[in-house]
């Protein structure tokens, strides 16, 4: 699934090449005098979850307009780079969202080199969501795409060419985080809704295109277009209602997603119960006891965590268990952090064999990195995985110590903790490691704030509705321009559900119509 | 312009005496050899000669140069765009269409200028004559009758990418090889072609012509190691016009005022009142019955190679969409021809059953067949093995165009032919090869789709393939392509260039003039009394340019109000109308177009070793790049499975290399201007 058009991201990076090339001659089209202003972008640049202060950054030519509209500073802007305490209000309803600090950074003396602004607001999810939605509702302002702030900084010459390398990695990290976040959101009802809109739009476009490309020679009646008219109208109404409907049905899974995974009977459910300090999941010595995903919300070191216990991974005996395993794998794919539970008694007793055994174990439990680069994969793994060596009370102390030493010395394995859920030995150390990991994840804006994903979705939906009105505007006198409206609308929905190519549209055309020449 | 073309009688042509050629030619070295005299071959040969290369066109039968093997028509929706662009680059087919057309119409007239489809029914004889006489009068072009047995290849030039280098060709019974710097293969359906009719199969590419290219097919596959696939197509039976009950069909009349294809022509050769009509009729359930009953006798339809979904045989139409009426167009074959061409009735069953099928249609109940329909299976070279210049990546100097690349249609073939001819000539003259960007032309879309994505069925142009459709219109093909065709490509005559520049400048001035005439909404209302009700003014001061965006306002109306400002541009009133409506939409697209052009302007070296590139790319992406070998960074972004991070890494690598090699010229110059 392609989340956004990431190719757009590095466009300006390319433009540095212009300095290396002779000046181009433009003569291929009638020159236009219109200047295409760059969009103004915003993003939550602090972590999400329960933090004291959240920082929302805005960059681009409309930054001063944004500042005026959100803070009621109609007369003068704040002095540059000075914090000012203001009431922050919704730009349209003027409803008070929060009282917070605002800062104004006129270009070029800002991180991106453009006019920029910052809003420091209280860190609650409700406030953050409201501020992001307010920003998204302003004309010409949209959520930033992965790596876009850094890319703009690069474009403005604030980063050197050598730092492009780092930009690549950053974009990789951000797209990964957005991908996981989007996977979680697309999983539910909302995902189905977007997919449904996308496929209906595809059909509309295919039918308009069929009418344009074939109706002169073929039996394609005007009735086809009348159907498209009403489909487009219905879609417009549905999307508009959805946008006006203060996110009914959108249950956001807030918090760091921690998933417990591993072989059957390794003690995954025991770990969940230990962490919850209550029996949330049924525990038994029978392998395959947990079949569905069991969820619990916890607070670890002050950070919200959504803990999921999954079915043990094995080739299931019945269809219910197989479904459980499928869901388990899906959860691991979407997780911010995976606790891979191992039954310590299964560890090989011979010296130096444990690291190899655990490598193999991880490769079964974790999804193979899509990048395919073993280096990259390993790096990502050690960040997002903790090994829990459970049932340590059943392992001789000497073997435990030797294994611990061997694991410390071996490269490429995620941190490992010996633990006994039964006796709670090692629980303190494990909790300390877990807490620091959750803290890092929460403090990192890249771990995918749901409200930001939501703001991005809203922005695309809004643009989609706007584009659809172009269809009606031109429907009766220029079908090419009307079709362009549907195509644009589909492009915007496609930023959420995945890009749609010309071939896909033609497939629908040939499926639905008998086209000759 | 057209008047000087006189009908030619073939045996008068000096180059038809081809027997003398053998010994002379053997000693000669040509810049470019074009193999094949169809739509791709003729455009390729003419373009190569225009660019300045000594060119030899080799065809099996001189008499069939410029023959329309299938339907007697040119243009249409999408295809008409290609014809206009070919004309803008000084190609032959637009002017040939204006000379040979007997029924002109603009399809999609009511759907917006971006998708207008200029189209004409052609007189086969006139078309052939025009193409032949045009080739005759082209300097630096020689035509030779013969069949090519083998492609001569040698070691590649180590300074350039590629494993082989083409050195010329060998004729079937030719004593000595004919040498050249470049070879353009436009062999159409003749590459391992076989004809199907009923249960009989004969080798060949077109009925009535000897099979050829058996050796070529072998060279391409075995010596050059090219991947080859198989496609099929077909043609309908030709019906004797007298035997058709014309009282039972609908008559479709042409446009009252024919619109020429060519930017150089103000009128067509055929007078408006001389135009011929087309006829429309429909299939019946009896047709479906005959198809079903004859399936076991129909080898072609049983083959599992891919035929076009959009030009299906009547067999596949009724099998895929049973129980329906299908349209059948009866098209004239020419002013003096006694035949009709039944568009939509391509069939490959035995001839007696073809007759039975036809007679199931009321208007054809006593129809007579002159030549039966048949199917063709043929090899094509997977076009992902080509550069955007249409040169084979692995073989220096070898260019392919037309059906050999997996396309269908005259216009698609001609478009590739022209571009292959241009580059074959440029390669021979040691000029950098050029590409056309998909942001600039349908030809660019066509070639980019072919070399970037390959084909799974015969490729035909549709307007929906062009993402920048609102900018790539038939009306502005000259402004998009002619100046570049002259200044950079070298395939456009000075006369055409001057005309295009005049038009471009006048349009600019006209738009500026429109912008300069400004009135308040009240004043406009007074002046445009009769149009008042439809216009909903929203601002106080409105320019003529803004006003033209309303569909009921035309340039002529405004010129009547401001004659001193606008009447000089009345010649361009239609184009100014279109520009005014489309400008805001094109401006919206311009940023996206710029992005694509920037990406396209970064060429990736064709011999890049992706597997060991010292940058952090995942092994999956490395393999992907190694397999597809994109020509530009833009092409790389369109590979399914590429990651944004990988693109940035690649960009970084290219930037560094570009900086290092700033002074060493690059062989393949990416042609999109940022």
UniProtKB/TrEMBL annotation, chain A:
Q: Which reaction does it catalyse?
A: GTP + H2O = GDP + phosphate + H(+)
Enumerate the subcellular locations listed in this protein's record, separating them with semicolons.
Mitochondrion
Q: State the needed cofactors, names only.
A: K(+)
Q: Where is the TrmE-type G domain?
A: 255-439
Cited PROSITE patterns: G_TRME
The cross-references to InterPro entries, in alphabetical order and at most eight, read: G_TrmE (IPR031168), GTP-bd (IPR006073), GTP-bd_TrmE_N (IPR018948), GTPase_MnmE (IPR004520), MnmE_dom2 (IPR027368), MnmE_helical (IPR025867), P-loop_NTPase (IPR027417), Small_GTP-bd (IPR005225)
Instruction: Kindly state a single biological-process term from the GO annotations of this entry.
Output: mitochondrial tRNA modification
Q: Cross-referenced Pfam families, in alphabetical order?
A: MMR_HSR1, MnmE_helical, TrmE_N
GO CC, sorted alphabetically, is: mitochondrion
Q: Which GO terms describe its molecular function?
A: GTP binding; GTPase activity
Domain of life of the native organism: Eukaryota
Keywords from UniProt, A to Z, are: GTP-binding, Hydrolase, Mitochondrion, Nucleotide-binding, Transit peptide, tRNA processing
**Similarity comment:** Belongs to the TRAFAC class TrmE-Era-EngA-EngB-Septin-like GTPase superfamily. TrmE GTPase family.
Q: Which HAMAP family match?
A: GTPase_MnmE
Q: Which PANTHER family does the UniProt record give?
A: TRNA MODIFICATION GTPASE GTPBP3, TRNA MODIFICATION GTPASE GTPBP3, MITOCHONDRIAL
- Reported function: GTPase component of the GTPBP3-MTO1 complex that catalyzes the 5-taurinomethyluridine (taum(5)U) modification at the 34th wobble position (U34) of mitochondrial tRNAs (mt-tRNAs), which plays a role in mt-tRNA decoding and mitochondrial translation. Taum(5)U formation on mammalian mt-tRNA requires the presence of both GTPBP3-mediated GTPase activity and MTO1 catalytic activity.
Name of the protein in question: 5-taurinomethyluridine-[tRNA] synthase subunit GTPB3, mitochondrial
UniProt organism field: Esox lucius
Name the gene that codes for it.
GTPBP3
Automatic annotation (TrEMBL), chain B:
The entry's keywords: FAD, Flavoprotein, tRNA processing
The coding gene here is MTO1
Ranges of residues in domain tRNA uridine 5-carboxymethylaminomethyl modification enzyme C-terminal subdomain: 580-652
InterPro entries the UniProt entry points to: FAD/NAD-bd_sf, GIDA_C_N, MnmG, MnmG-rel, MnmG_C, MnmG_C_subdom, MnmG_C_subdom_sf, MnmG_N
Name any Gene Ontology BP term: tRNA methylation
SUPFAM superfamilies attached here? FAD/NAD(P)-binding domain
Annotated GO MF terms = flavin adenine dinucleotide binding
Protein name per Swiss-Prot or TrEMBL: tRNA uridine 5-carboxymethylaminomethyl modification enzyme C-terminal subdomain domain-containing protein
- One cellular component term from this protein's GO annotations in UniProt: mitochondrion
Similarity field? Belongs to the MnmG family.
Task: Output the PANTHER family linked to this UniProt entry.
Answer: GLUCOSE INHIBITED DIVISION PROTEIN A, PROTEIN MTO1 HOMOLOG, MITOCHONDRIAL
Respond yes or no to whether keyword Flavoprotein is given for this record. Answer: yes
Q: Which cofactor does it need?
A: FAD
């Amino acid at each position: 699934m392609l989340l956004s058009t990431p190719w757009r991201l590095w466009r300006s990076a390319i433009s540095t090449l212009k300095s290396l090339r002779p000046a181009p001659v433009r003569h291929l089209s009638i020159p236009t005098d219109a200047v295409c202003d760059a969009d103004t972008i915003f993003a939550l640049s602090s972590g999400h979850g329960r933090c004291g202060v959240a920082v929302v950054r805005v960059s681009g030519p409309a930054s001063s307009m944004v500042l005026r509209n959100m803070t009621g500073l109609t007369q003068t802007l704040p002095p540059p780079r000075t914090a000012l305490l203001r009431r922050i209000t919704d730009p349209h309803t003027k409803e008070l969202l929060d009282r917070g600090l605002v800062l104004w950074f006129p270009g070029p003396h800002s991180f991106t080199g453009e006019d920029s602004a910052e809003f420091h607001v209280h860190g609650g999810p409700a406030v953050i969501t409201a501020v992001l939605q307010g920003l998204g509702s302003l004309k010409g302002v949209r959520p930033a795409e992965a790596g876009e702030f850094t890319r703009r900084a690069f474009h403005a010459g604030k980063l050197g060419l050598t730092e492009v390398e780092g930009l690549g990695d950053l974009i990789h990290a951000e797209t990964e985080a957005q991908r996981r976040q989007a996977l979680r959101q697309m999983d539910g009802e909302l995902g189905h809704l977007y997919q449904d809109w996308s496929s209906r739009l595809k059909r509309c476009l295919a039918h308009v295109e069929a009418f344009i490309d074939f109706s002169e020679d073929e039996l394609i009646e005007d009735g086809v277009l009348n159907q498209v008219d009403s489909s487009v109208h219905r879609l417009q109404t549905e999307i508009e209602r959805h946008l006006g409907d203060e996110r009914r049905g959108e249950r956001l899974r807030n918090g760091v997603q921690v998933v417990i995974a591993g072989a059957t009977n390794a003690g995954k459910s025991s770990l969940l119960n230990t962490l919850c300090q209550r029996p949330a999941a049924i525990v038994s010595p029978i392998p395959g006891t947990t079949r569905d995903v069991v969820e619990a919300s916890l607070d670890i070191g002050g950070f919200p965590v959504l803990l999921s216990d999954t079915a043990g991974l094995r080739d299931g005996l019945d269809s219910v268990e197989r479904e459980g395993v499928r869901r388990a794998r899906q959860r691991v794919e979407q997780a911010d952090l995976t606790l891979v539970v191992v039954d310590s008694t299964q560890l090989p007793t011979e010296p130096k064999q444990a690291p190899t055994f655990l490598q193999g174990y991880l490769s079964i439990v974790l999804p193979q990195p899509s990048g395919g680069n073993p280096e990259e994969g390993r790096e990502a793994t050690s960040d997002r995985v903790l090994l829990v060596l459970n049932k340590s009370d059943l392992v001789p102390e000497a073997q435990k110590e030797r294994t611990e030493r061997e694991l410390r010395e071996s490269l490429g394995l995620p941190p490992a903790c010996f633990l006994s859920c039964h006796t709670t030995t090692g629980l303190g150390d494990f909790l300390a490691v877990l807490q620091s990991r959750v803290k890092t994840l929460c403090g990192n804006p890249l771990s995918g704030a749901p409200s930001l994903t939501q703001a991005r979705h809203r922005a695309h939906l809004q643009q989609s509705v706007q584009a659809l009105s172009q269809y009606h505007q031109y429907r009766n006198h220029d079908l090419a321009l009307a079709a362009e409206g549907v195509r644009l609308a589909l492009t915007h929905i496609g930023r959420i559900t995945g890009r749609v190519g010309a071939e896909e549209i033609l497939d629908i055309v040939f499926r639905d119509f008998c086209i000759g020449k | 312009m057209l008047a000087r073309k006189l009908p030619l009688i073939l045996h008068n042509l000096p180059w038809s005496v081809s027997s003398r050629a053998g010994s002379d030619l053997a000693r000669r070295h040509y810049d470019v050899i074009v193999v094949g005299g169809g739509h791709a071959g003729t455009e390729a040969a003419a373009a190569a000669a225009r660019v300045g290369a000594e060119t030899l066109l080799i065809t099996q039968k001189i008499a069939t140069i410029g023959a329309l093997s299938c339907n007697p028509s040119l243009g249409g929706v999408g295809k008409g765009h290609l014809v206009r662009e070919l004309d803008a680059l000084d190609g032959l087919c637009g002017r040939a269409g204006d000379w040979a057309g007997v029924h002109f119409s603009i399809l999609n007239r009511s759907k917006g200028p971006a998708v207008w489809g200029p189209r004409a029914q052609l007189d086969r004889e006139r078309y052939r004559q025009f193409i032949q006489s045009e080739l005759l009068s082209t300097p630096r072009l020689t035509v030779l009758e013969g069949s090519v047995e083998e492609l001569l290849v040698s070691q590649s030039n180590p300074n350039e990418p590629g494993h082989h280098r083409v050195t010329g060709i060998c004729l079937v019974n030719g004593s000595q090889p004919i040498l050249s710097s470049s070879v353009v293969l436009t062999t159409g359906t003749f590459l391992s072609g076989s004809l199907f009719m009923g249960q009989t199969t004969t080798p060949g590419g077109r009925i009535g012509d000897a099979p050829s290219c058996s050796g070529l097919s072998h060279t391409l596959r075995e010596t050059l190691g090219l991947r080859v696939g198989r496609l099929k197509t077909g043609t309908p039976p030709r019906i004797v016009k007298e035997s058709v009950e014309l009282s039972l069909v609908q008559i479709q009349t042409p446009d009252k005022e024919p619109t020429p294809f060519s930017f150089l022509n103000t009128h067509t050769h055929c007078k408006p009142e001389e135009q011929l009509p087309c006829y429309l009729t429909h299939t019946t359930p009896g047709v479906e019955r005959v198809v079903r009953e004859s399936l076991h006798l129909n080898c072609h339809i049983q083959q599992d190679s891919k035929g076009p979904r959009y030009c299906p045989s009547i067999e596949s139409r009724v099998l895929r969409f049973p129980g329906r009426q299908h349209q059948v167009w009866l098209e004239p074959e020419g002013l003096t021809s006694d035949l009709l061409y039944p568009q939509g009735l391509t069939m490959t069953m035995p001839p007696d059953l073809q007759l039975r099928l036809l007679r199931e249609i009321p208007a054809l109940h006593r129809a007579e067949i002159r030549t039966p329909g048949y199917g063709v299976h043929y090899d094509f070279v997977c076009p992902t093995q080509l550069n955007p210049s249409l040169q084979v990546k692995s073989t220096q100097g070898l260019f392919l165009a037309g059906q050999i690349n997996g396309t269908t249609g005259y216009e698609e073939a001609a478009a590739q032919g022209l571009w292959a001819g241009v580059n074959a000539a440029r390669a021979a003259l040691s000029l950098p090869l050029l590409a056309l960007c998909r942001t600039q032309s349908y030809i660019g879309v066509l070639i980019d789709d072919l070399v970037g994505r390959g084909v799974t069925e015969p490729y035909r142009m549709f307007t929906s393939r062009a993402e920048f459709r609102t900018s790539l219109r038939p009306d502005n093909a000259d402004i998009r392509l002619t100046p570049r065709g002259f200044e950079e490509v070298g395939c456009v005559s000075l006369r055409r260039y001057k005309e295009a520049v005049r038009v471009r400048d006048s349009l600019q001035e006209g738009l500026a003039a429109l912008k300069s005439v400004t009135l308040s909404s009240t004043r406009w209302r007074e002046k445009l009394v009769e149009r008042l009700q439809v216009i909903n003014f929203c601002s106080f001061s409105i320019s003529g340019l803004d006003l033209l965006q309303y569909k009921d306002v035309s340039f002529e109306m405004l010129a009547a109000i401001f004659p001193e400002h606008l009447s000089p541009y009345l010649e361009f009133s239609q184009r100014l109308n279109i520009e005014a409506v489309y400008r805001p939409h094109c401006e919206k697209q311009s940023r996206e177009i710029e992005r694509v052009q920037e990406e396209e302007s970064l060429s990736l070296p064709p011999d890049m070793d992706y597997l060991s590139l010292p940058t952090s790319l995942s092994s999956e992406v490395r393999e992907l790049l190694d397999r597809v070998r994109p020509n530009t960074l833009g092409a790389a972004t369109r590979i399914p499975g590429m990651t944004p991070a990988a693109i940035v890494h690649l960009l970084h690598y290219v930037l560094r290399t570009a900086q290092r090699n700033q002074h060493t010229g690059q062989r393949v110059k990416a042609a999109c201007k940022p």
